[in-house]
């Protein structure tokens, strides 16, 4: 299937590692030009070199910390300069510290809201006008299965990522007639360094080993294993493509059957 991504321009937030990097690599493999972002200029440079060595789409990078109030405008300026515009926005952010919601520090929650929610809205607001002019655009937000089935011990993540659910659905209704689709993709237990961090935190809290925690986690997944970054990136890339032109306002789970609800 031709996904129609050759020559499309994608801004992929928080793409120095993990899910964001996987999506950037998958988009570039389909011929899209991608702008990678993250806090580590060194990691971004390595990733850009790796993607460009493969051919197909070209990669660029811009280092930015989403906790900086000026990061949205800086990223939008970089995208205009390096890509010439944005056809695809992959809205991805890091996660907040783990812990129970009942014990959460609300000042941390407020700061994380700026980074994880407000920054996504600001960047989207900056790219939508160009998408409207061209009559084509894709916004794919990476959230978590916790927005449909709250995950124990990551209360702040459950709350803050859920804030993007109403935003994404509202945006999809507002933009569908302009040729712009807006969807969310929800990872379950995809094997990334972030999942390893969460398993480590759970192990420390429970007194178990990290492998015992991971084994118990895998036992709750009907597929019997953690997913791969490539499996997740394949779904996000489809949602960003021409082939998904009539898919909007959705929340697509990539979780191996982890979520128990229908």
Automatic annotation (TrEMBL):
Listed InterPro entries: NAD(P)-bd_dom_sf (IPR036291), SDR (IPR050259), SDR_fam (IPR002347)
Superkingdom, natural source: Bacteria
Family: Belongs to the short-chain dehydrogenases/reductases (SDR) family.
Name this polypeptide is given: SDR family oxidoreductase
Origin species: Psychromarinibacter halotolerans
